[in-house]
Automatic annotation (TrEMBL):
<feature type="active site" description="Nucleophile">
    <location>
        <position position="370"/>
    </location>
</feature>
<keyword id="KW-0378">Hydrolase</keyword>
<dbReference type="InterPro" id="IPR001360">
    <property type="entry name" value="Glyco_hydro_1"/>
</dbReference>
<protein>
    <submittedName>
        <fullName>Aryl-phospho-beta-D-glucosidase BglH</fullName>
        <ecNumber>3.2.1.86</ecNumber>
    </submittedName>
</protein>
<dbReference type="InterPro" id="IPR018120">
    <property type="entry name" value="Glyco_hydro_1_AS"/>
</dbReference>
<dbReference type="InterPro" id="IPR017853">
    <property type="entry name" value="GH"/>
</dbReference>
<dbReference type="GO" id="GO:0008706">
    <property type="term" value="F:6-phospho-beta-glucosidase activity"/>
</dbReference>
<comment type="similarity">
    <text>Belongs to the glycosyl hydrolase 1 family.</text>
</comment>
<keyword id="KW-0326">Glycosidase</keyword>
<dbReference type="GO" id="GO:0005829">
    <property type="term" value="C:cytosol"/>
</dbReference>
<dbReference type="Pfam" id="PF00232">
    <property type="entry name" value="Glyco_hydro_1"/>
</dbReference>
<dbReference type="GO" id="GO:0016052">
    <property type="term" value="P:carbohydrate catabolic process"/>
</dbReference>
<dbReference type="InterPro" id="IPR033132">
    <property type="entry name" value="GH_1_N_CS"/>
</dbReference>
Amino acid sequence: MTTTAPTFPETFLWGGAVAANQVEGAYDEGGKGLSIQDVMPRGIMAPRTDAPTPDNLKHEAIDFYHRYAEDIALLAEMGFKVFRFSIAWSRIFPLGDEAEPNEEGLAFYDRVLDECEKHGIEPLVTISHYETPLHLAETYDGWTDRRLIGFYERYARTLFERYGSRVTYWLTFNEINSVLHAPLMSGGINTPKNELSRKDLYTAIHNELVASAAATRIAREVVPEALIGCMVIATPIYPLTPDPRDVLAAMKADHANLAFSDVHVRGVYPGYFLRTLREEGLELSDLGATEEDLALLREHTVDFVSFSYYMSVCETATQEVEAGEGNIMGGVPNPTLEASQWGWQIDPVGLRVVLNQFWDRWNKPLFIVENGLGARDELVTGPDGEPTVVDDYRIDYLRDHLIQVGEAIADGVTVLGYTTWGCIDCVSASTAQLSKRYGFIYVDRNDDGSGTLERYRKKSFDWYKEVIASNGASLAD
């Protein structure tokens, strides 16, 4: 608790975030093709299936495809200034490599944008959020194949030409650095992770970075007023002990995460990444990098850096410690921190740390586009007789993190906005469960697929509404 309210800029964008594959459902409606999510129904750690399975919660998800107007009205009731959502690539290009887009898919997002405009909510659109068209994964092995750059350019150009006058903020890829740990989900790479060569993995990284720069170039041609951002997982990495070897281990682990944004922002591959390649017996040319690629990266850097923040981790080279439970980014547990029900360590101060680190490193505006607490919520009857969730634990988590955002702003960091993850309950990306809930809005659906899909306001709904209305001043209460 604090007695002094943090000060947020009057232009601060308060809101929430979701992803198409976790909320839309309607996986086979409107001309949509299959995506990789249709064959990885049990989360990122489980192997893919040969075909869509009937128990895949993502197939119906929370039925945002049919209920988007109702849901956006609830977000507007909270006072959202911004709503981050993604466009499903396979709704626009069902296979991913067609010459012409699917008009029915384009029209769906026209309707979503209509609702945002109706309520005065700024859209923040992610172009590719963990749902590469399945055809691109199976036919080309995803981003290991350079031809995906051209397919992505066509897709991005289609979006900019269709929605460019309606959308200012764009993100090229979701959590692009996660490809190191989840190559199928993040990079559409069909080759099993344990069979994937380092050369192919680094080639996929290069192809995605070039595609991101190409999309940035196209946006500046088609909609020069648009702002293009990258999006990464932000995970502060602390040395487990003061031993210099642990400090060095933490630095090296941090470099693996920072390399992506270094390229996005600075336009060149950092020396530490080139050293990693050399130690694998590789050069940039082995990844298919051309002089034209390097010029594109150099000339079309991003306007801002966005990131997800859920946890911090430790690294050590001196002790034998098991990796943290449930954390796809590796690392070992911090003995000073508590953890969520899914083993993610809770570190509000780490958000201030990473905001300062990123600002000092890149001097680009920052946007926190995911942060939240996944928890098992219990539906109860509220004082007004309506179903609700008394989620004080979520309120405490978000308040503690937002206070640290205010502290970072006081430190001089430029922060554009904050969108909580899963502002309405959705299917978890990491576990494919609905019982891992993040939202201010409870959706009546269970892990076994049962439920009415009715929406109910949680206690945190009114709390966040007041935070937005007071521009953060209520955080001192």
